Each structure stands twice: as structure tokens, then as C-alpha cells.
């Protein structure tokens, strides 16, 4: 599956069981092509009956340490997925988002095995489930390990929608009271942070379909309207209306978003009419 036609056929159209069958077929072909990865691919994908079992295995394998065993983490993840089926549904939507938007993603199995942005986001989702169920210290442990392993620091109390892509994912920071809508795309070194030492609701609220460019900093309890674009390297300190492009330090409106769904198009080039 390498090409736009395959992306159109698969992403967003198939139920989770069919998606998992597609992933397993890719995995079997990958073992044939690269036998040296056979053990990794079997352990990570082919050994598991269901999509959510594979997710739980990957979570436990990547986050295990001398302080917390793989077995304990696997039990936590299995319990979370059993009690909250929406975790697997969100993971499917995120996977389809990566496959549809990232030109470097040629197979559905890639994010599950190799893309730390996808894996960190699924770990956050388990951490958030723990937080919502009163297991706050364990949620903090998951946050810590995600930061150590993936370089992605998402507070477990943050609320993140589905169909989210975090591309490259190095140095992502999302604060405690941040809210990220559905179908959002962000690149590496994005910060959704607070300002000063104030307590309470202090982090950004990102609308549906927003694209946040590499290195952008969105600070304070501000709102970024749906289907807007934040240019790379921008520092956003004020509300952003829907369907606009902002750029600069501090960021200002430089034009319209340029399309109905910036997070899908992933176009980070400002038109000349927006710059001058």
C-alpha cells in the first residue's frame, strides 16, 4: 500500500476489525521482505488477536523500566482497554490520520511499530484514563515515562480529541488544562503552555481541524478557532479566529486558512499575499 489511492481506500472507511486485518497482512508481508525483523513484528503485531491487544503490548514494552515492570504495565493497559473501548476507537482514528496526512507513512503498521508521535499519544490516552479514574500517581508515572522515552510531555489531565497526528513529535509539551479538538495536526517542538505561575485554567484550547506548525508556542488560556493554521515558529498569545492563518512573534493574522481543513492538507507555506 504505497500511494494516494491506497490512502483514500483505507483511511477513515474501514471498521476496526478490517483495519486490523489489513495491518496483519502488511506485517506478514514485512516479515517475508525483512526476516531479521521477524521477531519484532511477530511480538508487536502478529502475535495479537486484536488491535487493542497490540496497543497494550506496545505500551507496556516501551514504557517498562526498572521501576515498573512490563507485566504490570500490560495489566494496566489491558484493563484500560477492556473498561474503555473508546481508547481503541481513538487509536484507530489517530492511525488513519497519520496514514492519510503523513507522506512518509506508506503502511498502516508503521505508526504502531516505528512512529513515536503515535505511540506517545496512545500512551497519553491510557494516562488520561488513569487520571479520570482517580489513579493520579500512576497517571503521572505514565507521563514521566512518555517524556523520558518519546520526548513527548503531555499532562494526563489534558483533553485531546481523536484523529490527531503528532508528526516527528520531538519536544512536544501539552499542559494540564489544555484542550485539543478532533482532527488536529501538529509538528515537532510544539508547546501548548501556560504563562507565569497562575493556577486554574491556564492553557490553550485548540479547535477542530487546526494545523500547528513546527516550533510553534501557544501560551495561556486562549482559544484557537477551528480550521486555523499556526505557522512554524510562531508565538501565539491571543485568541485566533476560526479559519485564519497566524504567523510571527508575537503571532498576528496574516490571511485566511486557505482551505477547509488545514490539518488534512498540511500546507505550511504562506502565500505571498499573506506575507506582504
* Count of spatially separate domains: 2
Helix percent band: 40-55%
Shape: globular
Specify the CATH homologous superfamily of the largest domain.
serine acetyltransferase, domain 1
Fold-level CATH name of the largest domain:
serine acetyltransferase, domain 1
Distance separating the two termini: 42 Å
Mean pLDDT across residues: 92
Instruction: Compute the CA-based radius of gyration.
Output: 19 Å
Number of helices: 11
- Widest sheet: strand ordering: 3-6-9-12-14-15
Q: Give the CATH level 1 class of the largest domain.
A: Mainly Alpha
Oligomer: single chain
Q: What proportion of the residues form beta strands (DSSP E)?
A: 5-15%
Number of strand elements: 15
- What is the succession of H and E elements? HHHHHHHHHEEEEEEEEEEEEEEEHH
Examine the secondary-structure arrangement and name the CATH architecture of the largest domain: Orthogonal Bundle
